[in-house]
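Pilot study result, target chain (152 residues):
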Amino acid sequence: MQTSKPLRQQLIESLMQQHKENIADAAVLVWEQMAAQIILLVGECGFQSLYTRSIYLTQPAYPWLEDNVTPCLDNDIAQPSPQAQHHFSGLKRSFEGKSPAQAGAANSLLLLNFTDVLTSLIGEALTISILRSVCEAGEIPQMQPGTSNHVQ
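Predicted structure:
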């Protein structure tokens, strides 16, 4: 018996299908859209912590992934940093020169790790809502009867 993929994984795969060309730029666009929403919930430092943790969790499979996020200072918790637009320059450099398949697989795992960590903080429903909003174009997979929203 084949089990269906969790909704978060379906949404991430949908994002990857929408952006098969120029993976480096497409990945940065997706991450910028995610960051804009998540920073509103957890602040700049909260986002940086989640992103850095996700890079760390993804690096065993893709050791060439860069983490160039500048750590936040305690007084910067609610303030966007001047480097906010450069969050993902290391990610873009990591993906440049890699095959689209390699970069896409790395970004998919990074997004999955990120949403796992995010879900533990804000819950499944809000995480899925953020992912759905980032899927601005194309078909967004709907839950199939008998599937679960939970990653197992």
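One observation from the pilot: Residues 7-70+81-134 form one domain. A full batch analysis is planned for the follow-on phase.
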